[in-house]
Q: What sequence folds into this?
């Protein structure tokens, strides 16, 4: 069996797909993590498991399953608790769908009765008031007031963040006291003190040598300051390096630096066997569960007995801590025990042990700051039986501090650029493959040395692409217009959605955008929602801006031949275009006032439509030219088109009086041509129909032939008569309900009725 699906459920007739995966064609056992929670995060119990084979590894093979084992929790008391909570969730969900269905069909008395007897909350109180004002009473001024109140209460925030953002880039030209800035480089490291507004930069590769200068940028003052021209000259300071990483501890103000690729690493060659290098440390992480901390001088001093001196002396992964606060501010030390329970996570990277032809990668490790110990969480071996994240280098890893989840994606393994994505839930140790190929789901191409930052509050990951390669062995490309991407997710264990981030269109000729690059560095301030990008390699200098990337300056810069030919493919005087520019990027989204304006435009469209049916045409025309026009974005083509189409309601024939079963006066009717008997077919149509579509389609609809009475007549409910307002006709009630559901598109999911309709959940065609 190659490809298969797994379904689970409490009965054989109602099962849910929890896995769609494939098996390798070998004898190594494989283990898959099966989804056991719904989209709301609630656990669901399982009694039956169904495996559906989809394909075999060969056309002449019959699908066969030899061995299956399941692991999970089977404790009866725990399973019973899960079952009870799951049943309660299902009951609540079904009842909320029923309540929505009843209110849509104007069964308001049963709706109120169920609410009072069950104590359920269908929606936020402001949204309930909005339904009364817009649907039942037609109080448009009150409806607009409620929309503004909902915006002030944060009920429209989700829609605002879900809108397509645009990147606004600003080049930062600050200097230090001597008028200098960090020189051109790639493969350097940056981290940020978000509370102090400081960006730290260290090391890198300028095309000819590794650097060990240390800088800090003050965002508020727009100034650079060189903390050290050469940290290798300081006590315990790190030497020149590239392809390292830095993180900032906001609680202690400490900077942690790990990994290196120095000038001599790629040129040295030691005649050691694989057994000799088993315990050697790696370029970006440890290779043992308990990693030995070495001093900078240990490379020149007598090494321990184990492992062999040849491995330890040249290939130790130095781990430093730099103090930015307290009495030790400005000094480098090694990691000793500190207060608190904080951890640093390291994944992947190529192992630096001199065996350049043998590709070796590191796994996933955690460093406990309190105990100064390393622990291996995942070996990164794809051939193991348990779920594992394949090791790689030149990839991205970000941490969601709210859910304690790591996201790992892209990079390179062997000669392949990767486009997969994994999540690792730290509290449970659960690994989930979100995408095997996110390019097929609208994401970026397989990429290498891309940079990524995360905003846990918004549940968004911002990706700044680097080098791309269509397939193994093909040419590596640095695209002339390399797009940036945003990845949105609702839960860490479910795939999210990818979208490109376009830049803000500016009519100014002086507006600048950063050129495509790789081996750059990006940090993010979640407080100000600002990204900072520095340096990198823009590829080969040529008249054609769409050049190809040179791998010399990439994330790991491992090829000995390129290091030996630095004079030919060197830095600024050669073919490569290394950068020293510094940028900040902010995502521009619609403002809260803009969201309110769009909602008011929807409300005034319905108000204008009813004025055309009930009042003088001149009054409606004046309202269109003044009140409706004032909430239209005339620079938006779609809004302008919709606004102009509203004029057709003035030119339409006046509606004919139609009696209603509830005795509603004909004056309260609608020009849609729908009376109480033929209003039911309109519910077949999508509730997202525009006002123009409703008018056009309903005006052309002929009265149906004699048929059985409709179950849903949309008649006036007794609840409406007690409110002291004139009840709308069935057709107008339907129009206003559609307006209300369009307004709900702006409202947060947890503050409104379910998006799905009850009819869509009932399958009568099976």
A:
């Amino acid at each position: 069996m190659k490809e298969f699906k797994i379904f689970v459920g409490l009965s054989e007739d109602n099962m849910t797909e929890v896995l769609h995966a494939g098996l390798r064609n070998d004898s190594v056992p494989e283990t898959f993590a099966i989804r056991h929670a719904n989209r709301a995060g609630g656990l669901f119990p399982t009694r039956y498991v169904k495996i559906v084979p989809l394909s075999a590894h060969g056309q002449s093979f019959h699908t066969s399953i030899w061995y299956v084992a399941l692991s999970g929790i089977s404790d009866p008391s725990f399973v019973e608790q899960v079952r009870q909570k799951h049943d309660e969730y299902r009951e609540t969900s079904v009842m909320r769908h029923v309540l929505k269905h009843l209110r849509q069909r104007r069964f308001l008395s049963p709706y109120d009765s169920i609410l009072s007897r069950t104590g359920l909350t269908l929606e936020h109180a402001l949204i309930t008031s909005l339904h009364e004002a817009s649907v039942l009473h037609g109080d448009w001024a009150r409806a607009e007031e409620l929309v503004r109140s909902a915006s002030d209460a944060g009920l429209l925030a989700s829609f605002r963040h879900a809108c397509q953002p645009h990147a606004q880039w600003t080049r930062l030209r600050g200097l230090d006291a001597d008028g200098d800035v960090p020189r051109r480089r790639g493969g350097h490291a940056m981290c940020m003190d978000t509370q102090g507004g400081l960006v730290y930069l260290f090391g890198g590769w300028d095309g000819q040598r590794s650097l060990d200068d240390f800088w800090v940028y003050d965002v508020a003052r727009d100034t650079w300051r060189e903390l050290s021209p050469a940290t290798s000259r300081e006590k315990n300071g790190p030497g020149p390096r590239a392809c390292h990483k830095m993180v900032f501890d906001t609680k202690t103000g400490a900077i942690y630096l790990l990994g290196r690729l120095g000038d001599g690493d790629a040129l040295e060659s030691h005649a050691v066997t694989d057994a000799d290098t088993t315990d050697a440390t790696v370029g970006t992480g440890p290779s043992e569960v308990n990693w030995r901390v070495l001093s900078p001088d240990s490379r020149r001093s007598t090494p321990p007995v184990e492992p062999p001196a040849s491995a330890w002396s040249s290939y130790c992964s130095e781990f430093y801590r730099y103090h930015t606060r307290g009495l030790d501010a400005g000094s480098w030390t090694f990691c000793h025990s500190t207060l608190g329970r904080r951890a640093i996570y390291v994944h992947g990277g190529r192992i630096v042990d001199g065996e350049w032809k043998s590709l070796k990668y590191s796994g996933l490790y955690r460093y406990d700051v309190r105990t100064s110990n390393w622990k291996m969480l995942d070996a990164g071996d794809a051939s193991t039986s348990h779920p594992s994240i394949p090791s790689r280098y030149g990839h991205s890893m970000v941490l969601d501090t709210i859910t304690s989840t790591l996201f790992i994606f892209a990079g390179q393994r062997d000669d392949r650029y990767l486009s997969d994505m994994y999540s690792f839930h730290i509290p449970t140790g659960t690994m989930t493959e979100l995408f095997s190929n996110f390019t097929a789901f609208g994401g970026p191409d397989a990429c290498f040395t891309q940079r990524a930052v995360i905003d846990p509050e918004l549940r968004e990951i911002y990706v700044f692409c680097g080098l791309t390669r269509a397939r193994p062995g093909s040419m590596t490309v640095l695209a002339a217009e390399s797009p940036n991407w945003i990845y949105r997710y609702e839960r860490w264990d479910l795939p999210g959605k990818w979208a490109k981030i376009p830049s803000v269109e500016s009519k100014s000729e002086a507006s600048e955008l950063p050129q495509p690059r790789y081996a750059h560095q990006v940090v993010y301030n979640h407080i100000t929602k600002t990204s900072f990008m520095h340096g990198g390699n823009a590829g080969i200098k040529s008249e054609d801006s769409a050049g190809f990337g040179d791998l010399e300056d990439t994330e790991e810069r491992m090829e000995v031949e390129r290091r030996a030919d630095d004079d030919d493919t060197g830095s600024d005087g050669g073919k490569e275009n290394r950068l020293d520019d510094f940028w900040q990027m902010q995502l521009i989204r619609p403002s809260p006032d803009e969201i309110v304006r769009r909602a008011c435009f929807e409300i005034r469209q319905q108000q204008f439509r009813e004025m055309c049916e009930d009042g003088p045409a001149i009054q409606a025309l004046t309202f269109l030219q003044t009140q409706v026009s004032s909430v239209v974005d005339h620079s938006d083509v779609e809004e302008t088109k919709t606004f102009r189409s509203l004029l057709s309601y003035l030119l339409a024939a006046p509606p004919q009086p139609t009696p209603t079963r509830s005795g509603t006066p004909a004056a309260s009717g609608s020009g849609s041509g729908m009376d109480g008997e033929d209003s039911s077919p309109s519910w077949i149509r999508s509730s997202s129909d525009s006002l123009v579509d409703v008018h056009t389609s309903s005006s052309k609809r002929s009265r149906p032939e004699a048929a059985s009475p409709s179950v849903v007549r949309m008649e006036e409910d007794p609840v409406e008569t007690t409110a002291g307002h004139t009840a709308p006709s069935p057709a107008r009630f339907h129009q206003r309900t559609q307006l209300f559901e369009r307004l709900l598109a702006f409202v947060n999911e947890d503050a409104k009725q379910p998006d799905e309709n009850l009819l869509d959940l009932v399958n009568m065609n099976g």
